[in-house]
Amino acid sequence: MKIAVILGTRPEIIKMSPIIRELEGNQADYFILHTGQHYSYELDKVFFQQLELPEAKYNLEVGSGSHAEQTARILTGVEEVLLRESAEMVLVEGDTNSVLAGSLAAVKLNLRVGHVEAGLRSYDRQMPEEINRLLTDHCSDYLFAPTDKARATLLGEGISEEKIWVTGNTIVDATYQNLEIARESENGLSALGVNPKEYFLATIHRQENVDNLVRFTSILKGLDAVAVEFCLPVIYPVHPHSKKRMNEFGIKPRNLILVDPVDFLGFLKLESQARLILTDSGGVQEEACILGVPCVTLRDNTERPETIEVGSNILAGTSSSRILECLEIMLNRQNNWANPFGDGKAAERIVAIIMGGEHG
Ligand code: UD1
Ligand code: UDP
Questions:
Q1: Catalytic: 205?
Q2: What is the pTM assigned to this prediction?
Q3: What is the pLDDT of residue 190?
Q4: Pocket test for ligand 1, best of 13, 34, 38 (most atoms within 8 A of CB)
Q5: CB atoms within 10 A of CB 147
């Protein structure tokens, strides 16, 4: 079966990397189709290089644009490649525009669609990602749910049991495969002038936060208050989307250490040594939980409720006083929770299911 692995953004490259390795190891008939949604070196190439991934056979170079523009460009580009390659199946991961357009192009050609990280829901349809993951799940043939909860959600939406496998999340595979190398690597703390467990790490890039002046300003005010109140540095690797908005809004955070986006090993090291992480990222909520680092989520909801249940995470929203309050709660928690996202063998399971032709 000829498989197209479709990816387009930073988290997809990272979370697909264990699957790509597994496909390589099994000498599967596959190729990588990069949509080009992310194109800046620090959001794209750096991960291919560091994770030693084969180069994408195709790059659609769709770049940035409105949701409709970007989705449409991916849709037509993917269709053309799938036809040219006579692909029989596509694999997509997560909830970006690349995922929605990739799966939609494939299903309309009557190809099999495998959705890695299926069944996540924030129940907030204002988020572009919620629409993307819902629609992708409902046009997929193979739904690889990371947890039992995700499986139950899919069943609750009427998706048939035979299409769903609980595999764990490939972010555990990627974390386990790279953590030791990350810990031993040079890059990291000393260059930033910080000591292990004596700094906070922050990331903010969600559209509903950074495109909204009031919410973005309030979050940054909260982070500023955290740095001052706890006398500890807050390191914030700034996503280009957020940088663009900061410039447009004329926001200049005073007490934060702003850095460029970090490569995966460098970021894993920063996460694992942080006293606490503040984020609106999906993947970072998971990694904090896996690494045993407390997390404060700068959102009103999460599609990763498992992290709240095990006690690794708390929802702070965007009010600066609530951010401070949640940080104090999390600093007083025991961080001995169990990782709910699997044993690091998700990719092995996913590839075995696909290659074994296991399908209801
Ligand atoms: C996208 C995903 C989001 C995911 C995130 C991962 C959608 C709707 N959003 O958000 O779910 O969490 O990727 O990081 O699919 N830009 C660059 N260089 C790049 C890419 C983007 O400078 O390589 C800037 C551009 O100004 C662009 C903006 O970031 O307009 C937004 O990019 P876009 O791909 O639309 O969304 P992300 O915010 O990256
Ligand atoms: N990440 C990274 N460098 C950074 C910030 C994040 O390598 O400076 C990684 C992080 O380890 C995680 C992934 O990017 O695996 C999360 O991606 P992002 O936050 O962009 O998207 P989301 O998960 O919210 O869709």
A1: yes
A2: 0.98
A3: 83
A4: 38
A5: 20
